[in-house]
Design brief:
With 843 residues, this protein is an all-alpha fold. It contains 48 helices and no strands.
Length: 843
């Protein structure tokens, strides 16, 4: 049964009383609610048959059934039309109307109804006056409410506690606490005792004005007078105490609340959790959250958002994601800020796929993405080095009605500079200016740093001048970038002058500034001069950091003094500092160059023991030493310098034999190879395209009883795909799926490309279908798998086939994705049939 069918039955039924019985019978059915049309039809029938008593009852029900201001306005209009002789508004009707007006904060309508009531000769009751006073006071219209108060006395009535409490509320909302306390004194003099609501309103008013001590005193006063505080009474003081950093007192107040048999509700917990989170007491807030669950209370969106937002601010994204999951499982609704914070967290963890999945959910069910959402995703892709997708997000945001701002361009310029694409970065920079946007420090800084890194320091200097002309003051980071560029080109006097200019601009050189100068000196044979800067740094209360020391160690080793470097390392370690991979690798390289390979292996042992994990370059340096040693043994060279020159030609020639030798020597040196050791080697070899060595290395690893990790399997899968060893690739793929390893879209793209190239399209289609079972953003699937995968590899037919699979499985794509796909297909394969794509994008 629905409202339309009920209305039809009420219209056609011959007998009005039977229709009335049907009306009440059907209203008792579960999940059924009468529409206003049903009320109107039946009320018209009852009035036509002059059944005024049931009509009056129905009129009251009709008023109470209104769910919003629009419905109540419609009902009032109808009731005024049918207000015939014998069916005028009663006091009960007027009071019901006033209560509903109050519910929807319709102050003007309430005043009109009151005037109409008096004109109709209906005498108001105290309920009438109280309701109207309450409506006016909630809107802060205290003077108008006082006029109504005077009418109470005119009708020989006395105000009650509700009357005065409403007036006190109005004064508090107007921030007029003196008048609020004036009404309190007046009500007490007139023998009207304040109740818990009266005290609660005053306590909240005091808290909102920052008068916490007075609020707490009033709380004590009400208890002394035998008025029991409610949950509502405690909630605002608890929150206010937290906001001014008095979290312990807030917790004590909650404990006192419990002792009095008044248990916190969701709002109390949420107030305390929010305030504790914002004041940095996050662990206590999380503890309260768990206590709340133990008490059987269901947290609301505000509770979850308070915890999630603060965790994200602190960079603790893993626990934030856990709470986000709990929130969704318990039916909570994240707001835009929550989504943006979680998306930011995923992007910082380089997991743009999960970020895009959340973005897709925002597009589907809300809340709608904001400019911050798009900028965050662009930053995430730039950080990951996926500049294609960053530009695709830019296109999508424009299509969805968002104009890029200064931060959008800053992220893109920075991303393209870091990716070594200065020409694109410069074009974006100029485009930004043409659009009337003013580049910020981040934007200028990224471009200046980019030019410095490719040796175009003079261009960077002119850009800094342009920056100053545009009233954008260079910051320390920008000066540091140019000083770094000058130092690398051995233009040290200019770098020093720039340091002086910094000081003139009232910018204090920081540890990066000094470290940059140290690095420049060390790379240009001036390590002895660099040593003089370190005491100067300490004198200026800017102690050297690991980067400073790493530069000095590298300089000493480059100049053939690894023993001095080792002595410096001991000194640094004595200060409680742990060196990084750069410093240890430089030292290892220094000993390798001196032909002291055993000592180099002792350094790597020390490196591992200190908790610093070797990277691929570290192993590469040791391989260079092994190749040199092998050359000396096989060629019987006497001249060690000749051996170094010869072996340096082959230092990237990481054959399986040499890698095996490296692993044996590591073991002999007390550095037993671990899964991480193999993972580092496999990943590095894959980047060099040495897939044959990777295959052998993984087999050797498994023979030794070590199980490959996710990274090794991923690298191996890519290696097999590149060599079109699809059967082996499928084996690795199955193993990864069975072990529950997460596969990224680019890995799926590699596998699908390999299968299509091997003419095994049906298997590729099967894997693509299984891939779609997981939670992806459909647009990102097209960008990464279809465009950057299949289409880039010349598999345009497979690309179209997989697109049709997505469409047939109802994976909706953003309009702009079709535009991007059409453009890419046109660029890659001009012979392909474009009708299908053209239909989608109307081109």
């Amino acid at each position: 049964m629905n409202g339309r069918r009920s209305k039809w039955i009420l219209e056609i039924h011959k007998d009005s009383e039977t229709a009335l019985q049907f009306f009440f019978w059907v209203s008792k059915r579960p999940f059924y609610k009468h529409s206003l049309d049903c009320f109107i039809v039946l009320l018209n029938r009852l009035l036509r048959d002059q059944l005024f008593a049931p009509a009056d009852h129905l009129r009251i029900l009709m008023i109470k059934a209104c769910r919003n201001e629009e419905e109540l306005t419609r009902v009032l209009g109808f009731l005024n039309e049918v207000s015939v002789k014998g069916f005028a508004f009663s006091l009960y009707t007027y009071n019901t109307l006033l209560i509903q007006f109050g519910k929807f904060e319709m102050a003007a309508a309430a005043q009109n109804a009151y005037t109409q009531m008096l004109s109709a000769g209906v005498e108001p009751s105290l309920l009438t006056f109280n309701t109207l006073i309450n409506i006016l006071c909630k809107k802060g219209k205290v003077q108008e409410a006082e006029v109504i108060l005077s009418r109470i006395f005119q009708f020989d009535m006395n105000p009650d506690c509700f009357t005065y409490t409403s007036l006190i509320l109005g004064c508090c909302r107007n921030h007029d606490l003196d008048s609020a306390f004036g009404f309190l004194d007046r009500m007490v003099k007139e023998g009207c005792d304040p109740n818990s609501v009266t005290y609660s309103v005053l306590i909240n008013g005091l808290c909102n004005e920052g008068r916490i001590e007075e609020a707490l005193n009033m709380l004590s006063e009400m208890i002394e007078k035998g008025v029991e505080p409610t949950v509502y009474t405690y909630t605002v003081p608890i929150s206010s105490l937290c906001k001014i950093g008095r979290a312990k007192e807030a917790c004590d107040l909650m404990a006192d609340m419990r002792k009095r048999g008044c248990y916190p509700n969701v709002q109390t917990y949420t107030a305390l959790i929010s305030a504790l989170s914002e004041s940095g007491k996050l662990e206590v807030a999380i503890g309260l959250y768990h206590k709340m669950l133990v008490d059987g209370l269901v947290p609301n969106t505000v509770t979850y958002n308070a915890l999630i937002n603060e965790l994200c601010v602190q960079g603790r994204f893993e626990p934030a994601l856990k709470i986000f999951d709990w929130m969704e499982k318990r039916g909570g609704l994240p707001n835009t800020r929550t989504y943006n914070e979680i998306i930011k967290g995923f992007c910082l963890m380089s997991n743009t796929e999960k970020a895009m999945h959340l973005f897709n959910r925002m597009l589907k069910v809300g809340p709608s993405p904001t400019l911050i959402t798009y900028n965050t995703l662009i930053r995430g892709y730039c950080k990951k080095g996926n500049l294609n997708n960053a530009m695709r997000i830019l296109e999508m945001m424009k299509e969805n009605g968002f104009d890029p701002d200064e931060w959008t361009y800053a992220e893109l310029v920075s991303g393209f500079c870091k990716g070594g694409k200065l020409a694109v970065a410069s074009d974006l920079f100029n485009k930004m200016i043409k659009q009337g946007l003013r580049p910020n420090q981040v934007c200028y800084g990224a471009l200046i740093d980019g030019y410095c890194k490719v040796g175009k320091v003079d261009v960077a200097l002119s850009l800094m001048e342009r920056m100053e002309e545009n009233v954008c003051k260079p910051n320390v980071e920008i000066y540091n970038a140019i000083i770094n560029g000058l130092s690398k080109e051995n233009r040290l006097s200019e770098a020093e002058n720039l340091c002086n200019r910094m000081v003139e601009q009232r910018l204090l050189p920081n540890v990066i500034t000094y470290s940059t100068l140290v690095d420049g000196l060390c790379k240009n044979g001036g390590t002895h001069l660099a040593f003089k800067i370190i005491p100067e740094m300490e004198k200026r209360n800017c102690p050297p950091n690991l980067h400073t020391y790493s530069s000095v160690i590298h300089g000493l080793c480059q100049e053939g003094n690894p023993m001095d470097a080792e002595a410096l390392v001991r000194e640094i370690e004595g200060k409680g500092l742990i060196l990084d991979q750069v410093a240890y690798t430089s030292m290892i390289d220094g000993f390798v160059k001196l032909g002291r390979l055993e000592h180099a292996f002792s350094v790597i042992r020390r490196m591992i023991n200190m908790g610093c994990t070797p990277n691929y370059r570290t192993f590469n340096v040791l391989v260079k030493g092994l190749l040199r040693e092998r050359h000396l043994l096989t060629e019987n060279c006497v001249n060690q310098d000749e051996a170094v020159d010869i072996c340096s030609l082959d230092e990237k020639d990481m054959s399986f034999e040499v890698v095996s030798d490296l692993l044996v020597r590591l073991l002999d040196s007390g550095c037993e190879p671990t899964v991480n050791t193999y993972s580092t080697l496999v990943n590095g070899l894959c980047k060099e395209g040495r897939y044959d060595v990777v295959d052998q290395l993984v087999s050797s690893m498994q023979e030794k009883g070590l199980a490959p990790n996710k990274n090794i399997y991923g690298s191996l899968l890519v290696a097999y795909c590149k060599n079109l060893k699809v059967d082996l690739a499928l084996e690795v793929f199955s193993t990864m799926v069975l072990n529950g390893f997460e596969l990224h879209l680019n890995v799926y793209g590699e596998l699908l490309c390999a299968l299509c190239k091997a003419s095994r399209v049906e298997e590729a289609q099967e894997i693509f279908n299984s891939m779609l079972e997981r939670q992806w953003n459909p647009d990102e699937v097209v960008w990464t798998v279809l465009i950057d995968g299949l289409l880039k590899e010349g598999e345009s037919d497979a690309c179209m086939k997989f697109l049709h699979i997505m469409e047939s499985r109802n994976f909706p794509l953003n309009f702009q994705t079709y535009v991007i796909l059409a453009r890419e297909i046109s660029n890659e394969d001009k012979s392909i049939e474009m009708v299908g794509i053209a239909d989608k994008v109307r081109i």
